[in-house]
Specification:
Blueprint (H helix, E strand, L loop, with lengths): L3 H8 L5 H14 L6 E14 L6 E9 L5 E6 L6 H10 L6 E4 L8
Parallel strand pairs: 1-4
Antiparallel strand pairs: 1-2, 2-3
């Protein structure tokens, strides 16, 4: 979970950050261990893939199951796009009920 200062900065004065943190914690604790499925978001440049027209390498954002590292879904990050916009597109087409999704620091920005 992000720190309380991060929640305060992102959410502002509309929601009490400590109360929100408490509710999220209660929710995660209410899930059984089988329901607590963790997915990780991670972007990678695929080695050995260069487009002839643009000389760019293939850049993918993958949603992976944490325990098995199985790729659940992936999408190409297009020229001029970043992982945040790619993640929005990726997560819209993924069943996320009772899933916990983590990502690296870039995802804490929005």
């Amino acid at each position: 979970m992000p720190s309380q200062s991060t929640w305060q900065r992102l959410i502002g004065t509309n929601i009490d950050a400590s109360q929100f943190d408490k509710k999220v914690s209660e929710y995660f604790q209410s899930l059984s261990s089988n329901e607590r499925q963790l997915y990780n978001l991670d972007g990678k440049v695929v080695c050995g893939t260069v487009e002839k027209e643009t000389s760019e390498q293939l850049y993918l954002l993958a949603l992976q199951e944490q325990k098995t590292n199985l790729v659940i879904e992936q999408t190409q990050i297009k020229t001029g796009e970043n992982e945040i916009t790619g993640a929005k597109r990726l997560l819209e087409r993924t069943a996320l009920s009772k899933k916990i999704v983590s990502g690296d620091a870039i995802f804490a920005q929005q």
